[in-house]
Specification:
homodimer; about 400 residues; alpha/beta; Arc Repressor Mutant, subunit A; Nucleotidyltransferase, domain 5; five-stranded mixed β-sheet; 14 helices; globular
Chain lengths: ~400, ~400
């Protein structure tokens, strides 16, 4: 058995980690695993039980003698509120610490009405969802929010988000935390989607790239099972990578950006130019599904353009899995075929030999599940638990 | 104080970690920091002293009473042998666990003579270096080797290395370990160079990309202060990324690869085509230094080509620092200007705002220092120490 690497005795958080990742344990087993005395183990278990992180029961398979008391992770007792807010839609869920979804809903919601109106609605909708699940705010230990723009993760404040007027620098955690009485974590949508897909794909994936293809195009990156946010939290911003041989104007002011040739807006514009009614990526996918050949060709070509940019990134990053999500991913095989075609023809054989390229398993739930994962990992981090439970 | 996150009591390795990262400590301080009893602390310190990882002394600044015994990391007692093997050159060093270089040498060495002849020479050269430093093999606790080709890091075996005939699958750690009596770690040259530069740039850099520009072009990647090797250990292999608008044939069999337009071999070939004598990247840089305008233009353009590929990668990865190393980096400002020119014009402002782009601080010592860092971090990992010292 190895020992604690940071030089401190295992606290309540470490005990919880053992119970969370495995089967229920007796006091004696926990003392043996940690090197702590039985009395210290008991004292820490008392704290965990008092805060309802752990539940005590009898071991029914114990053979002979009186049944031993076993201690188990109590995933159902405490709750997380998770929201994935898009430009025009929101998905909210009440999820327990064992990652079971107790209640969820989607709604139309314009993020451009500003933070107070948007978050006010979110706070109310969370309370309604809690009531629907027969639970209340006192059981909530954290709130996770995904936003459709850059976020300074440490402070939870949006940073110059292009499609979120009024949100720049707004203290989302303070405002929402005051109303919900729990810590609030915020990150951008692609990062939480990557966390969600990584959770769904566990445990075998070390390095994952999640590509959101919608109005915008961006990546969430997992390196060594951890989110790679980059030096300014800007990692994954591939939407404005220059695509060779294109002079298409982009909404960012440059020309030839990936978004300008493969974003939902550019596909819809191309359809409108041929007299076909289409507003955004969802319309393009709907037209494709209805058999429109022009829409099908556009989606396939968008996949190729994304694949061309990702081909270099596959050589650089050597991911285990690439997951395509966002509205355009609902085009399924058509977009996947385009992405695969260019990555397999342009990336190195060693990097593509075992590379999985697939559509999101969680679909439009990736963001809300990832927002919950972000909170659960924070709330159950040993340091967090130790700060709550006096040793 | 936080507690051990993996649920086990702090062992000798954890105590060593405290001493290594800070000032010398008394028994009482160590007991307080770890939550261990003073007798357990004493027992673990005895083991560390016996193995010479730790040294005991008197605290000279102790005020009043008799001086307290303090315990300190004994970085000078044990040694690492490190070698950076290139296609035609080798650099070897004897380095202690505090990362002081005790002896070093460079030599011409053809890696294509195969593993036994090459490594036999390396083993002999290490023994000579040890003698020169007045030390011997009994003090060596690990050996680190950087090789100029892909390596399966877990086994230390080269994997289809293109310029190393006879090395494919050769068990470098077994062969060399049997001769030197210490564990041997092996990785490819760009990975150890990245480790070396990250060590030199510490502590502020979380995300670093090291680009080696020589005959070949490749990256070593640090994400969250850890080496990102990728799913097949192939991360950083950007030499065969397709460059727009080039049809130059590459030694890999494809056309338009980055190496085919910016590698040392292609620059030398371009000079030879104009009747100028040049064999590889070192000749190109030497010609540039001698004032040859054609060589200068080639180096500058190579920087631009590398910058064009890296511009997308900067958007994707958002590194804190990009370090240019390898032979071509000796061209200094000329190559740097080319790389900067394209990255700053093509990457997103947020990702380049605080981005450092510079030439290697360690120069041609980056590889050998990084090979030592790889071994020191392994040898002093708490789990490793705990396995050696019975708890």
């Amino acid at each position: 058995m190895s020992s604690g690497s940071n030089g401190h005795a295992p606290g309540a958080g470490a005990l919880l980690g053992i119970l969370r990742s495995g089967r229920p344990r007796t006091r004696g087993e926990l003392a043996e695993l940690t090197g702590l005395s039985r009395s210290t183990v008991s004292q820490r278990l008392d704290g965990l039980i008092e805060h309802r992180w752990v539940v005590a029961g009898e071991d029914s398979v114990s053979s002979g003698g009186r049944p031993a008391t076993v201690f188990a992770f109590n995933g159902g007792a405490r709750l997380v509120l998770a929201a994935d807010l898009g430009a025009t839609r929101a998905r909210l869920a009440v999820i327990d610490l064992g990652m079971s979804v107790l209640a969820e809903r989607t709604a139309e919601l314009s993020i451009d009405q500003g933070p107070e109106q948007t978050l006010g609605w979110v706070a109310g909708a969370f309370q309604d969802l809690l009531s629907a699940a027969g639970r209340d705010l006192s059981q909530v230990c954290g709130v996770g929010i995904g936003l459709p723009g850059p976020v300074e993760h440490a402070s939870g404040r949006p940073a110059n988000p292009p499609i979120m007027p009024g949100w720049d620098g707004f203290a989302v955690p303070d405002w929402l935390g005051a109303r919900l009485g729990a810590p609030v974590l915020v990150d951008n949508d692609v990062n939480v989607m990557a966390l969600g897909e990584h959770w769904a794909a566990r445990p075998e994936v070390d390095h994952l790239i999640f590509i959101k293809m919608g109005t915008g195009i961006g990546c969430g990156i997992i390196s060594g099972r951890r989110l790679h946010r980059g030096a300014q939290g800007a990692a994954g911003d591939v939407g404005h990578v220059r695509v060779p041989a294109s002079e298409a104007p982009c909404r960012c002011g440059n020309v030839g950006c990936l978004e300008a040739v493969a974003g939902g807006g550019s596909m819809a514009a191309a359809l409108r130019a041929s007299g076909i009614e289409a507003e955004g990526s969802r319309d393009v996918v709907a037209l494709m599904r209805a058999g429109d050949l022009r829409a099908t060709r556009l989606v396939r070509q968008a996949g190729r353009e994304v694949g061309t940019v990702m081909a270099s990134i596959v050589n650089f990053f050597n991911p285990s899995v690439i997951v395509i999500g966002g509205d355009v991913a609902e085009a399924g095989e058509q977009v996947l075929a385009g992405v695969r075609e260019t990555i397999y023809s342009r990336s190195l054989p060693l990097a593509t030999q075992h590379l999985g390229i697939r559509v999101s398993q969680l679909g439009d739930r990736a963001g809300v599940m990832g927002a919950a994962v972000m909170v659960v990992e924070h709330v159950l981090a040993p340091d967090t638990i130790d700060r709550i439970i006096t040793k």
